[in-house]
Each structure stands twice: as structure tokens, then as C-alpha cells.
Amino acid sequence: MTATPTRVRRTRTKAANPPNSVPPQASSPEAEFRRWKPSEVAALKLLPYSERVIREKCYKRLLFCHRDGGRITFTAEDLRRNAELGAQPAA
Prior knowledge:
Elements: H1 38-43, H2 51-59, E1 66-68, E2 71-73, H3 76-84
Antiparallel strand pairs: 1-2
């Protein structure tokens, strides 16, 4: 009995966000229920840090964030609490 070759599995790629989609601003009503990625927080300048620094500070638990399933996300409340901390830009 010889082994038959198995079928190659094809994984579905996750559809990227369309280039025209803009996330809601932090002050809009929909933002209260939205989770922000570190890349979005850095791009929209919601915190005065780069994406990498935001991630490092979250790993060290210096910023308020959620680590759901190993992914770092921010709610509007987290961003407000971080602003109250008096986040300063790196010198």
C-alpha cells in the first residue's frame, strides 16, 4: 500500500481594511465602543509615542490597555486614563 499525496490546504487570507476606511475619531460616539490598535493610536497621535514605544509601555504595564488574547487594544476610557497620567513625549 502506497501513500497518496494529500491535498494542499489553502488558507483564506484576511481581507485588509479598504484604503478609504477611516477609523472614527476618539471623541465620536462610536469610539466609546471601539477598540483601537497601537498602530491606529500612533497614527492618529492619540498618545505622544510611536507604535513601538506604545507596545513596549503596554508590555511593561506603564499604560492602561487591554491584552485580549495577547493583542494590545485601547478603549476610549484607556486613552482618557493615559491622558490623565500626563504622558510626556520622550526627550
